[in-house]
Amino acid sequence: MLTGMVPFSHSVLGQAALPPCVVVQPVANTTLSNAPQFYDEPQFTVAGVKDPSETGGHGSDTVRRTTEALTKETVGLGVDAAKTTDQKRDEAALRADVERQPRNATGHHALADLDEKQGDSLAAVKEYQRAAELSPSEINLFDWGAELLLHRAYEPASEVFAKGRRLFPGSVRMAMGVGVAAYALGAYDLAAQRLCEASDVDPSDEKPYLFLGKLQAVGSGLVPGVVERLERFERLRPENATATYYHALALWKRREGHPEATAQVERLLLNAVELDPRLAVGYLQLGILYAERKDWPKAIGALRGSVNADPELEEGHFRLANAYRMAGETGKAKVELEIYQRIAKKTNGQVEHDRHEIAQFVYSSRSGEPEGTKK
C-alpha cells in the first residue's frame, strides 16, 4: 500500500473511447507530447489507499483473493525495463545519469524498477509516472498503470489504463488492464465487458479469456457476450481443459430460460475433467450440477474427485459435507466440515501474505514486447 502522496491529474489522461452505454464526464484535451504535465494541478491523491475489503459491496474474501490474483497476472504482462537498459549499471551511476538527463524517459523507467526492487513504492510510482510523461509509449503507460494497480491505487490505475487503451487500441494487455482495474473497483459487469473487448483485439491470445473466465468463477451475473467469447476460446483451444471448463461455467450461469443448457454443461464438464483429471474446479462444478438435481451419489462422487484433485479446495470440502449430510452420512459430513473450517482459516491468513509476494512477482514475471500502435 502506498503511504505517501503522488499527484495525479485527470486532465492529461483524457477520455478513453467507450461504448455508448457507458457514460463518462468530459475532461480537458491535453497533448501528451508537450512538457510534463502530470504533476500540474493534482486532482488525485494516492495516499493511504484503502484495501478493497474495507469498502462496501465487493469486500468478500473470494473477491479480494481474485483481485490480488488478477493484479499479479496483469503486472506480469509488463515489460522488464532491464532488457532495454544496461543491467550492470550501479545505482549511483543510474541516479547520476537521471540527474544529468532529467528528460530521459528510459532512465526514469530504469530508476522506477530499481526503487520498486528496493521497496520504495512511492518513489517507483513517481518515476514510472515521469517516464510516461516524457514518453507516453505503450510500455511506459502500461508499467505506470501496473505499478498503481500493484499497490491497490485502483482508481488512478484505471485512468492510466484508459488513456493507454485510447492511444494503443491494438494493445491486448492495455485493454486487460482496464478490465482488471474495473474489477478491483467493484464494477464487475464493466470489467467483463472490457475483457470481452480485449479478447476481440487478438482472438488468438488466450490471456483475456483466462481473465474473463476467472471473473465468471467468482461473479453471480453474466454479461452479454461472455458465453460467445468463452465458446470461441474453447473452439480455439479444444485440447485445453480450462477453456472447456470456462465455457461450461458461463453456460451454467445462463441456464435459466435455456433448458437444454444443463445437459451441454454436463457434457463439457465431463470432457474437461477427462482432458485434465487434476482439474478440481471441473469436478466441483459437476458436483454442484448433480446436487441441484438432488442426485446425491453422483454429487458425492464428483465432489470427492474435486478434493482428491485439490485437497485444499475450500468449497469442495464444504459442498461435500453438505452432500454427505443430505445423503444421511452425518459422520462423513462432520469430517468434511472440519476440514473446510481449517482450510478457510488458513486461506484468510494467506491473503495478507500474498500481497507481499506481489512485488516479487513483478520482477520475476515481467516479459513481452510493445503492443499496438499509437494513433
Could you characterize what this model shows?
It is a single chain. This protein has 375 residues and is mainly alpha-helical. The chain has a domain at 1-17 and 46-52 and 61-186: Tetratricopeptide repeat domain (Serine Threonine Protein Phosphatase 5, Tetratricopeptide repeat, Alpha Horseshoe), CATH 1.25.40. The protein is 63% helix and 1% strand. The protein is built from 17 helices and two strands. The chain has helices at residues 10-13, 61-75, 91-100, 105-117, 121-134, 138-150, 154-167, 172-184, 188-201, 207-218, 226-236, 241-253, 261-275, 280-292, 296-309, 314-326, 330-365, and strands at 7-8, 44-45. Strands 1-2 form a two-stranded antiparallel sheet. Helix 4 packs antiparallel against helix 5 (121-134) and helix 12 runs antiparallel to helix 13 (261-275). The radius of gyration is 23 Å and the shape is elongated. The relative contact order is 0.10. Mean pLDDT is 77; it is low at 3-59, 81-88 and 351-369.
Number of DSSP-assigned strands: 2
Write the CATH architecture name of the domain at 1-17 and 46-52 and 61-186.
Alpha Horseshoe
- CATH level-four homologous superfamily name of the domain at 1-17 and 46-52 and 61-186: Tetratricopeptide repeat domain
Rg from alpha-carbon coordinates: 23 Å
Helix and strand sequence? EHEHHHHHHHHHHHHHHHH
**Unreliable stretches, pLDDT < 50, 5 or more residues?**
3-59, 81-88, 351-369
Largest sheet: spatial strand order: 1-2
> Class by helix and strand content?
mainly alpha
Shape: elongated
Secondary structure: helix percent: 55-70%
Amount of beta strand: under 5%
CATH class of the domain at 1-17 and 46-52 and 61-186 equals Mainly Alpha
How confident overall, as mean pLDDT? Answer: 77
Distance between the termini: 34 Å
CATH topology of the domain at 1-17 and 46-52 and 61-186: Serine Threonine Protein Phosphatase 5, Tetratricopeptide repeat
Number of helices: 17
The largest β sheet comes out as: 2 strands, antiparallel
